[in-house]
Amino acid sequence: MVVTDVTLEAAQKVADAIGNGAAAFALDVSSEQAWIDTIRSVEERFGRLDILVNNAGVVAIADVEESTLEQFRWVNAVMSEGVFLGCKHAIPLMNKGGGGSIVNMSSTGALLGYPIYLAYSAAKGAVRGMTKSIAVMCQEKGYKIRCNAVFPGAIETPMVQFAEGRAGTEQPVAEGVLPHGAKGAPKDIANIVLYLASDESRYVTGAEFVVDNGLTIRPW
Fold it and tell me: Taxonomically, which superkingdom (predicted)?
């Protein structure tokens, strides 16, 4: 397993927690050369790549009138271009090894109108479209590679904590079925990713998995 983060220290912390030979690499997902170098390192160390999870995320809180072009480009460089670059450079190695699974992290921000998350929603909408295009391409070219997208609602993560003005302050998430408006736990998303990465989802590609506790189905 390989864990990447924009800082090696953060990636190494997670890799150490995983154990079992997990490797850590620093990766700025907005840099094409960084992706090329990372994929090369993965091949040199492990010889193949079976699963890619594009999960890097940033947020700028601003609507279309308030957002600067620099903010918009930064958010999309990470979450739109980053997904593009990851898929572009991972697919050849995946195909070389006989196939695999790509899981792209989108968001309910791509499905609903959130004025203050304009750039974020734009990037996640791009992820939605790219996922479908990549899934079809892999089938047409005969690659045994599936590509799916996950659309989380509000999950108790550092990004949500920042957006709510409580950076670094974690709130507990109850067990069991949650009421409307409750935040989910990271494991609620991890379990869907695990399914999509596994052979149990072999008949699933180009699909959208909305994990939002019913947020997007409500008429009010």
Answer: Bacteria
100-116 residue pLDDT tens: 999 999 999 999 999 99
Alpha carbons 73 and 180: distance in angstroms, whole number: 34
Domains, the chain: 1-47 (no CATH), 49-211 (3.40.50.720)
- Please provide the size of the chain in residues: 220
Q: CB–CB of 51/30 below 8 Å? A: no
DSSP 217: G
Query: Percentages helix, strand, coil for the chain, rounded to the nearest 5?
Result: 45, 15, 40
Query: Residue 56 corresponds to which amino acid?
Result: A
- Is pTM beyond 0.85 here? yes
In this predicted structure, what is the pLDDT of residue 163?
A: 86
SS (H, E, C) 103-130: EEECCHHHCCCCCCEHHHHHHHHHHHHH
Q: Is 120 a catalytic residue?
A: yes
Q: How far apart are CA 181 and CA 144, in angstroms?
A: 39
Residues of the chain with pLDDT under 70: none
